[in-house]
Amino acid sequence: MVEEKIRLLLAKYPSIIYGFTSISYSAYASQYKSAFVFAVPYGEQLTIDNYTEERFERGIQAAKVIVEEILVQTEAILREQNVNYYIPPAAQNNEEELTAPFSFKYAAVNAGLGWIGKNDVVITEKYGPRVRLSAILIDSQFTYGPGIVKSNCPDSCNKCVAICPYHALHDVKWDIDTLRSDIIDYQLCNQKRSLYIEKYGRKHACGLCMAACPIGISSAVSPS
Ligand code: SF4
Ligand code: SF4
What we know:
alpha+beta; binds iron/sulfur cluster
């Protein structure tokens, strides 16, 4: 019943990619059985030819508005159905380890939304990496996966690696056992983007390694 209602809600948002996964692997497993995880395309699907930091940031903000809409409506369903849930924070709350309490990326690959690219972000077939992820932990059973366990990046591609101005990416092709630190020097990426906090009032959005990705650019510019 809960799954049916969530699927009916998402039918109104055909551009959104979503799925469900067991979270038996997670620290939240004793409280919630599953995660509903979804990927909202950025407001603009930029390529390296039309990329600017400001446009990239605007696209993220537009996607965040849709994420909020989905969260509010899903919460209403879960409350109506009397099902326990928790919305984990999107951002890391620890600037040292730079990890979030619940990884949306790991949930997304387990739910089958995409794989992790050499740029350390989830790559969807439809939009490549140009999506905003979110998730809700739900104490209910769903139809899961199938999960994705290895990269579908073309063997010859390293466009994201080559474009990083700080050489933060290690040119490593992901599989389910790969650690984040194998793929990216996340401290370096974060440190460089944080240098802009004074100037912009936020970290630099730096989407270069996403804009450079050839996956999904057939849907570039605006999602349908
Ligand atoms: S976000 Fe920017 S700094 Fe970070 S890895 Fe990608 S290109 Fe490099
Ligand atoms: S640019 Fe190439 S290597 Fe990097 S994530 Fe996209 S497909 Fe994978």
